[in-house]
Amino acid sequence: MKTFRIKTHRLNQNYSEPHFFILNKGLNSGKPLNEPCPNCFVCIINNENDKDFMYWLCFGLWKSKSFHYYLKGSVIPFITIGDMKKHLRDNECIASKHPQLFHQSIHHLKLLEENEGKLKLSLKMIDTAKKAIFYKLMNKTGAV
User: What Pfam family does this protein match (any one) (predicted)?
Assistant: First the structure.
């Protein structure tokens, strides 16, 4: 069982232990972050290996929308720190019982994230090329 603490992040707070941040407001509640934002928790872990484990556990739970069950509030949904701790602890126990399957799932998630990044970059380059072609046309005809 991994040892971790979840606290509400305070602006300008620095942490010496390995840590990551977890968004706690909006429909993306539960999303793990490397950089803090105003509405987040901080998950503090004892070592880098456990940090990586917990980060990807949180990422998988967020992607599968498992935090949605715990959202409260009608205008801006949020997850409470107690619900976040309980859900992460329960799922950490499950993942720890099946480490091979968990690591295999995380490996696949990382590959998919990498491919998604490449596709987003390709789409951005295609969009830039479209703009450049039209811009070039307008400059040749003197329409701009």
Answer: DUF6943
Q: Which of 95, 10, 85, 105 is nearest to 50 (CA)?
A: 95
DSSP 98: S
CA distance 77 to 138: 47
What integer best gives the mean pLDDT of the chain?
91
The distance in angstroms from the start CA to the end CA of the chain is 64
| Cβ 102 vs Cβ 95: under 8 Å | yes
Least confident range of 1-5, 97-101, 140-144: 140-144
Question: What length does the chain have?
Answer: 144
Q: At what angle do helices 48-63 and 81-97 cross, to 10 degrees?
A: 110
| 10 Cβ contact list (under 8 Å, min separation 6) | none
Q: Rounded to two decimals, what is the model's pTM?
A: 0.81
Which CA distances in Å does 28 have to 13, 78, 118?
23, 9, 22
What lies within 8 Å, CB to CB, of 83 at 6+ separation is: 70
Which pLDDT belongs to residue 31?
Answer: 95
8 A C-beta contact, residue 9 and residue 42: yes
